[in-house]
Amino acid sequence: MQTIVLEAxxxxxxxxxxxxxxxxxxxxPAVLYHKGEPSLSLAVKESSLRKLVxxxxxxxxxxxFSDGTEKQAVMKSRQFxxxxxxxxHADFQLIKADETIETEVPTLFKGTPAGAIKxxxxxxxxxxxxxxxxxxxxxxxxxFDISNMDIGNTLHIKDANEMFASAKWKILGxxxxxxxxxxxxxxxxxxxxxxxxxxxxxxxxAKGKEKSAEKTEKK
Length: 219
Prior knowledge:
Helices cover 27% and strands 39% of the residues. By secondary structure, it is of the alpha+beta class. It folds into two domains: 3-95, CATH 2.40.240.10; 102-183, CATH 2.170.120.20. The strands form three sheets. It has a six-stranded mixed β-barrel with strand order 1-3-2-6-5-4.
């Protein structure tokens, strides 16, 4: 797994005014925490943080401070403004090589399902999965080959854990939760096809009438 380096600054200010001023300068207020230890308030550049937020892969984070210290972490959450344009806040969890953590990993699906060839639709229900593992074993994504899935087939968390039983991580959550399904074509789609066919038929009849009228006029 790749590591993204973020330059960070420790901050003491907590007031709303100070936080707004910080954001106007292009920084995002953030918190670094670890169970049993005091949390650390910090700030990171929004332009750098976007590289971590807008990615389809999982990454470890190296928080690099101006005093030369570095801390390894994972981003646990982020908060956007009401327009979804700017990052307002971020939470990081400090990680240690020998401690398991829980984190989210993107899902990736490859192959064209057999059911899709028959007209079915692929319905992705889980774009991310929460796993428990050691920091060094976090996968960038979890890839599923869905080419053998037929119409009506569903892949659940239980199935996924069985598929990756030898992996160094475990998917968390209710075993019955669906990750991806291949569902039948909707009735709306069938209706649209029928409507299209019905709409085309009167047009042919109308043209026939027009030709008949033309013949009558010529006579």
